[in-house]
Design goal:
With about 190 residues, the chain is an all-alpha fold. It is about 60% helix and about 0% strand.
């Protein structure tokens, strides 16, 4: 799937979710269902293409500086948490995602991050993009047990990145974090 088409589908879901598209913390978060609805209008093979492109998009964010930003924002962030963070970051749309990958400190500008720094409601991470995509696949007539096999076949031969890219530092080191993520550090300093 063309990257522009992929981001266009995410944007359609965000538009359907309206002003609640930027926070995954709400118990009645409308964005996952909106994404399912948008994707369910596609053929099952196109939904698999969406899943493959989602894998590529989130893999592009597999970077130490962004992981350290997620650690700071979420008060800790392991492997699974960083996968969730990248999935949720993609749901924030192309501009936010692209800017955050290039400059993780730009996340300090997001209202949801500001709320999180104040211990108010808010969350970026999303458990997995696979849920809404798999549901859309089933609704579009794809075999219930065929989704994973179809995605695995489409991903065949791609070698996953073993280590995050970019420079890392000890995120527990306040001085180093202030150096690398000054705006986020200012928000989350105690």
């Amino acid at each position: 799937m063309d990257i522009n088409e992929w981001w266009g589908l995410v944007e359609r879901a965000r538009e359907a979710a309206g002003d609640r598209a930027d926070d995954r913390d709400a118990p009645d978060d409308p964005l996952p269902d909106a994404l399912t609805d948008v994707l369910a209008a596609l053929e099952p093979a196109r939904i698999v293409d969406f899943a493959v492109t989602a894998h590529e998009v989130t893999a592009s964010a597999y970077r130490w500086p962004l992981w350290n930003a997620a650690y700071l924002i979420e008060g800790g962030c392991g492997d699974d948490g960083f996968m969730d963070f990248r999935d949720g970051l993609a749901l924030l749309g192309r501009d936010v995602f692209t800017r955050a990958v290039a400059d993780p400190d730009s996340l300090a500008e997001l209202p949801v991050v500001v709320r999180m720094s104040r211990d108010e409601r808010g969350w970026i991470g999303y458990e997995t993009l696979e849920g809404p995509v798999r549901e859309a696949y089933a609704r579009a007539g794809g075999a219930a047990d065929g989704f994973h096999a179809a995605v695995e076949t489409a991903l065949d031969g791609r070698i996953p990145t073993r280590e995050p890219g970019g420079e890392t530092w000890d995120v527990e080191d306040a001085e180093a974090t202030r150096h690398h993520l000054p705006r986020l550090a200012a928000l989350f300093e105690e």
